Structures are given as C-alpha cells and as structure tokens.
Amino acid sequence: MGCFMNLLWLVFGGIFTAIEYLVASLLMMITIIGIPFGMQTLKMASLALWPFGKTVRSGERSAGCLYILMNVLWIFLGGIWICLSHLAFGVVLCITIIGIPFGLQHFKLAGLALTPFGKDIISD
Questions:
Q1: Helices and strands per DSSP (H, E), number in the chain
Q2: How far is CA 123 from the centre of its chain?
Q3: The domain containing residue 16 runs over which residues?
Q4: Which residues lie across from 68 on neighbouring strands?
Q5: What's the total number of domains in the chain?
Q6: pTM attached to this predicted model
Q7: Looking only at Cα atoms, what is the longest distance across the chain?
Q8: Which of 8, 17, 48, 109 has the most CB atoms around it within 10 Å of its CB?
C-alpha cells in the first residue's frame, strides 16, 4: 500500500517538490557558508520524493548549541515560509477524505522544514 501511495504522491506533485528542494540545495551549496543549509534541503528533497513509510525523529544531538543556532538561522532565513506552505497544502488536502494521507505527509514535511537541523529520516 505504501508503494502505491508514494507513486500517487510522486505523480501528483511530489516530483516537483523534490526537484525544487534539489535545485535549492545545489544553489546553496555553491557557497561554503550555504553547505549546511544545502544539506538540510537535500534531506527535505529525499523526504519529499518518497514520504510514505518514513518517519522524522529528533536525533540525540538535536539539543546541541550549534543545532539550535542553525535552526534559529534557518527559521529566519526562510524556513518559516517553507513550513507555512506545507501547512497550507496539508490543510487544503485534509478537507477531503481522499486527501488526508497526503495532507499528513505535508504536515510531516512542515515539521522538518521548520527545524531540520538535528532531525533524522528513518524508514518504518
């Protein structure tokens, strides 16, 4: 069932979201200062490509000072807007019964988009 849902996700917009994250990641990695942020958008691209059957968890290192500082920078440099866009898509998709599983995936992406540093993506 998860593979079928991932294929539906991919066909109905997941591929475009993943490509957008991949392009953003490559653009950020051009500069040395942008490499940590590019790695986080690469993490989001992998989740946006195939989200069903994956879980986002905070790692044991997520409480470190560097991760907190990077997450605060991330939020102020655009992470809040990425999170809000995923929340909006999630709400719109959850209006219909068929869209609920896809809306839940957008909520998962919103949580990762708000504070990606120190989070791990784990296959169920």
A1: 6, 2
A2: 15
A3: 3-123
A4: none
A5: 1
A6: 0.88
A7: 45
A8: 48
Is 44 exposed, middle or buried, given 0-12, 13-18 or 19+ CB atoms closer than 10 A? buried
Closest residue by Cα to residue 46 from 88, 115, 108, 101: 108
Amino acid at site 70:
M
**DSSP bridge partners of 123:** 54
- Angstrom distance (rounded) from CA 75 to CA 113: 9
- Per-residue pLDDT at 63 exceeds 90: no
Angle at 18 between CA 26 and CA 116, to 5 degrees: 75
Tokens 């653009």 correspond to 27
pLDDT in tens, 76-111: 988 999 999 999 999 999 999 999 999 999 999 999
